[in-house]
Amino acid sequence: MSTPVIAVDGLQFSYPDGTKALGGIDLHIHAGERVAVLGPNGAGKTTMALHLNGIHRSGTGSIAVSGLPLDDDTLGEIRRRIGLVFQDPDDQLFMPTVREDVAFGPANLGLRGDELEDRVATALEAVGMSALAGRAPHHLSGGERRRIAIATVLAMEPDLLVLDEPTSNLDPGSRRELIELLGTLDITQLVITHDMHFALEVCTRALVMNGGLVVADGPIQDILGDEALLRTNRLEPPYGYSGSA
Amino acid sequence: MGAGHAHALYVHEHSPVHRLPPHVKIVSAVAFVVAVAVTPREALWAFGIDAIALLTVRGVARIPMRFVLARLAVILPFVAFAFVLPFVGEGEKTDVLGISVSEEGLWAMWNILAKATLGAATSILLAATTEVPRLLKGFERLRVPRLLTAIASFMLRYLEVITGELRRMRVAMAARGYSPRWIWQAKPIATSAGALFIRSYERGERIHAAMLARGFTGVMPDLYADTATRRQWLTATALPLLGATLAILGWVLR
After folding, report:
1. What is the complex's ipTM, to 2 decimals?
2. For A96, which of B1, B2, B157 is closest by C-beta distance?
3. pLDDT exceeding 90 applies to what percent of chain B?
4. Which of A155, A143, A146, A148 is nearest to A97 (CA)?
5. Angle at the Cα of B111 (from B115 to B139), degrees rounded to 5?
6. What share of chain B is helix, strand, coil (3-state, %, to 5)?
């Protein structure tokens, strides 16, 4: 098989107070896959996401992105390859204008001038937000902020897009636009969500996490069709969904 | 969403003054204020011409007079004590409207009033024609350490987010019947201030994580620096040059 976009092996993590957050995660995602991460609150989903680009570092286990192992020397490149979109766009959009925010990542990579300008324009165009380049983030709607948050990581041309609860606080219209937008992006995606309908529409594969472990991994139809599995993990199938049949 | 708040000092227009690069405007405004400050107080005509020059800038920038006057009120508390000077001043007395006042005190009062008004009006015009993020860029261009401009810029960005949180906490308290009247009912306010601090601190941590995720290495990248043409410098320095000339003339003709 080809080199996975992300290869996580035996990842463990405990908080400083001793609470175990991740109890040995193995995860391989290949190019073009769209993977949903499902699980109850406190399952370790966000903690795992923060490990993928080395925001959290743990002593045990290994992470490699497109074959490049995560260590002190590769941290910068790993962070370019993993585009992490945070749950609250207010955490992600911290620059005075949309344009500067989208430019922040590529500028940290050393891009300047026309090259930087191109990256920003392309990323904003990809999410359909070119018209808002000069605006201040706090004057935008929830849906617009979410799209721009995605643009800020697309501008780094990542290998893997990681979205943490992308539909939270979105009205149904913005949520629909987000589903369509993610469908147009030609990039491997890992989506952490509680929104089962959204997962079903966007993803082809699903992981169920609970207690810091991956307890199930398979085609999304099989996972969402296994009501017993979902119930044991404080999840439920999308309303009216009866499985792959 | 607090748009009005963000634009309390800024007037959206497309005037030549608005278009000048921010660092040029900052230099011009500061130099003009210095020139006004060193002009001798007896040179009444010089302050008159300074005022006319500022009014001209205001006209070109299309800032409503009412806007400037309303914001000038900010100097009132600072100049209030100036009105006392004619009555407590030493030296020769003179009659104004039948009241005997100190001539020296009168001059001191005039000096403070004239310079404070011109200085405040200058900064009001600067703020009215330059959005705060651009002002910060201007300061950065003038080699104010990027750490300071970054702190100011983050403060600006998150002020509304944090006041929004505070508002929601107050609504939540009011919804559960809390309407404080007496000082001994203040405890929930203190605890909510503490909670707000913790929340803001945690948000700061999340923002830092978001910055790291996009390759932040400890230095804010230098983005979209404004450049000024010679012509823009010449235009903008007209005001402080006039102010300086008047100040010099004031001293020479004294």
Report:
1. 0.87
2. B157
3. 48
4. A148
5. 25
6. 75, 5, 25
